[in-house]
From TrEMBL:
It comes from Salix koriyanagi. The lineage of its organism: Eukaryota, Viridiplantae, Streptophyta, Embryophyta, Tracheophyta. This is EN/SPM-LIKE TRANSPOSON-RELATED.
Length: 91
């Protein structure tokens, strides 16, 4: 079977004139752009997830520090409060 190059080139020329190839190129371009946009959004989501992990980690550390300070304050206040039993003996 032989392919007539003249017929093939006429077929291609007709499709170009009908806008088939530019339409296909447009579809490919739009698909690539959507893929790129999806990749960018994925990177942004990952960045935000990393920030959330970082902030949660710092929140837990701050919670621990607050508890430690509350314990220290409680010990300080209990040691500086006057003992009412001892005060009654001196009166």
């Amino acid at each position: 079977m032989q392919v007539d190059l003249k017929e093939t080139s006429m077929f291609v020329r007709d499709e170009i004139q009908n806008g088939v190839f530019p339409q296909a190129q447009s579809i490919i371009y739009n698909a690539k752009k959507l893929q790129d946009d999806l990749h960018v959004f994925g990177m942004k989501i990952k960045h935000h997830e990393d920030n959330i992990k970082f902030l949660k980690s710092h929140k837990y550390k701050l919670d621990d520090s607050i508890l430690d300070l509350q314990v220290i304050l409680g010990k300080y206040h209990s040691s500086t409060l006057p003992n009412t039993e001892n005060d009654a003996l001196f009166l």
